[in-house]
What we know:
The chain is of the alpha+beta class. It is globular. The protein starts with 8 loop residues before the first helix and ends in a 12-residue tail after the last helix. It contains 13 helices and ten strands. Helix 5 (96-106) packs antiparallel against helix 8, helix 9 runs antiparallel to helix 10 and helix 10 (327-352) runs antiparallel to helix 12.
Amino acid sequence: MSIDFEIPAEAKAIREKVRKFVHDECIPAEKELDTKPLADVLGPLRKKARAQGLWCPFVPKEYGGMGLGPLANALVQMELGESMLGALALNTQGPDDASMMTILAHGTEYQKEKFLKPLLNGEKRICFSMTEKAAGADATGMQTTAVKDGNENYILNGEKWFSSSASVADMALVMAKTDPNAPRHKQYSTFIVELPNPGYRIKRNVANMAIEGPHDDVIHGGHSEIEIRDLKVPADNLLGGEGNGFNMGQHRLAYGRLRHGMHNVAKAQRALDMAVAHVTKRSTFGQLLADRQAVQFMLADCASELYIGRLMLLHIAYKAEKGLDIRQENSIAKIFHAHMVHKVIDTAIQLHGALGFSQDTPLAKWYTQVRSQRLVDGPDEVHKWKIGKNVIKAFREHGTTASAAGGDLL
C-alpha cells in the first residue's frame, strides 16, 4: 500500500482562496498602515473576509467559524503568515486563537456565552497570563496564588511577565496556584478575568530588540509585566475546574507552537520570494546575481529548509487528524521552524545587500521579530531536553530510537 500525500480537493480550494485574499487584500493593505488608523484598515479587511466565508478557520461552524480540521487549518495558516494583517483579518491571531480553543473545549455554557462569543465575533481580545519571572519556562514554578473567598470568589495575588497582548486585551486567562499540596501538575487553575481591573495592573510593556512599526503596539499588543494584587474573580470564571490549569495550558501552548511554525513558513516563503525577485533583476560586475552559482546555492538552502518545514507541519496535522500523539513531533517542529525562518530571512537580507540591512524593506524588521521564536512557548533548550529524554526512553524500551526520531512516522 502506498503512502498518500494527496491533499483533499476541498482543502486545496480553501488554501487557494486564502492565498488570493492575502495577496490581493492583506499585503496591499499593509502600506495603508503608514497613514491610516488600524481600525480603518483592519475593519474593511475583516468585512471582506467574512463576506467570503473566511473567519475563525479552526472554530466549528455552529460557533460561526469555518470548521476546518488540523490539515486544512495548517494550510490556511501557512498562507496567512505572509502578512502581518493575515491572521488578524480572519480573527485567528495569537494569542487569542489558542485561548478561544481553550474556552471552546473547557468552558461552561455561561463562559461561552459571556466570554467566548465576543471573541469569536472579533469584538474583544484576550491575553494569556502564565509566565512569571521566577518560573520562566518552568510553568510548575508559578507563585501566583488563588485563594477561595467563601463560595463565590477567588482572590489572586502575584505577578506575571511577558503576557503578550495584555495591553490591548479585554480579558485575560490567568493561571494561579489553588492547591500547593496537590501533585505538582494539579496545583494550578485557570481563571477568566475581565479587563480593565484594578487588581490586574500593567506595570509596563517590556521593551525588546524587535523593530516596531506603525500600530505594532496594537497589532501585537506588547509583552506586559503585570502586578496582580487582591484580584477578585467570581467562581463562575474558573475555567475547566480546579487543578486542571497546567494541562489546559500545555494543550493551549501546543497549538501556539504549531501556529508559530505555520506562520514562520509563510513569512520565510515571502522573504525567499523577495530575495528571488531581487536577484533576478540586480546585476553586479556585468552579471545578474541570479546567474551566480553562490547565489543559487543560497536559494537552494532556503528552498530545502522550507520543504522540510512544510512536510513537518503537514505530518503533524495528519497525526492530529487521526488523534495520534504529536508531542515529540511538536517539540521537534517548534525548534526547527524557529531556526528555519531566521536563516531564510537572514539569507534574504544578505542577497539584498545594503538594501536588506536598511529598513526600506520589511526584512530587517522581520529579522528582529523572529528571533523571539527560539524563546516563546518554551525555549529551544527545554524542547531539546524533552526530545532527548524521549529518544533515550525509546532506546531503553525498544532497543532503537526510531519511534522517537522519525523512524516510526505514523
